[in-house]
Amino acid sequence: MPLDEAPSLPLHPQEKPRLTHPPLDTLQALQLTGRSHARLEQRQMPEIPAVPFEERLGLLVDRERTAREDRRLQTRLHKAKLRHTAGIEEIDSRHARGLDKALVLRLATCQWGRDRHNVLITGPTGLGKTWLACARGHQACRASWTVLSLRLPRLLQEVPLAKGDGRSVKRRTAWAKTAVLILDDWGLAPLSDDQRRDFLARLADRQDCRATIVTSPLPVEHWHEAIGEPTLADAILDRLVHNAYKIALKGDAMRKRQAPVPKHAPSV
């Protein structure tokens, strides 16, 4: 009988068929890195053979899901371009800077983003406006939303250049699609007529369908005067201030209060 036609030998009554597991390099090739790492850990656990197969498989699947969620979060944070690595749970409420604890807890639920409401953070320099905005942005990233942080003065300076090389339409589309847009340092410089109209158009794209966070050293009641042209100021503020949560910080700069005292400081 030819070798390729030889009948297979029957299994011994006491012998069980063995299942071959896919090699770890195959899991990595399929980008199942979380499952691959979990499998390596399981192989080093002496008690793992006693764990039922379904439970071991569930542990591998959970590990892969967690790894994928972590990678997506890191991608969102990278694209967000947040200026600070800040978390809601790290907000310091010990310093008297007018921070409403009830409002902070309310905003921690992320309902403001689901309702497409804006958050306006105002106050003097050094009170942590940008840090608080980044904490909200980090919170939104953890909620699986897209986030983009921009310094408004620099952005407005680039408006003429963007129009000249065709980037204006692309940037406006990016603004419109971003779930949470952070506009930092509003009101530091006067706006030109083109900047006012461009800014109004971008806000109109987001009205009632996206959330915007704005930080400014100017109180909200001074924004109309800072914008300049009354009609455009009315239109811009209607889209920013309507249904917005307001955090008005006050007091001395936190950096001054937290500055270390020299050991040999001269007596006064």
Question: How would you describe what is shown here?
Answer:
The protein has 268 residues and is of the alpha/beta class. It has 2 domains: 22-79, no CATH class; 81-253, Rossmann fold (3-Layer(aba) Sandwich). 49% of the residues lie in helices and 9% in strands. The protein contains 13 helices and 5 strands. The chain has helices spanning 24-29, 33-43, 53-80, 101-107, 111-114, 129-142, 152-157, 159-165, 167-177, 193-206, 223-227, 230-241, 254-258, and strands spanning 119-122, 147-151, 180-184, 211-216, 245-248. A 5-stranded parallel sheet has the order 2-3-4-1-5. The longest helix is centred in the N-terminal third of the chain and has 28 residues, at 53-80. It is globular, with a radius of gyration of 28 Å. The N and C termini lie far apart (108 Å). The model is unreliable at 1-20 and 259-268 (pLDDT under 50).
| Low-confidence runs of at least 5 consecutive residues | 1-20, 259-268
What count of helical segments does DSSP give?
A: 13
The main sheet orders its strands as 2-3-4-1-5
Q: Kindly report the CATH topology of the largest domain.
A: Rossmann fold
CATH-assigned homologous superfamily of the largest domain: P-loop containing nucleotide triphosphate hydrolases
Name of the CATH architecture of the largest domain = 3-Layer(aba) Sandwich
Name the helicity range. 40-55%
Q: Structural class given helices, strands, pairing?
A: alpha/beta
Major sheet: 5 strands, parallel
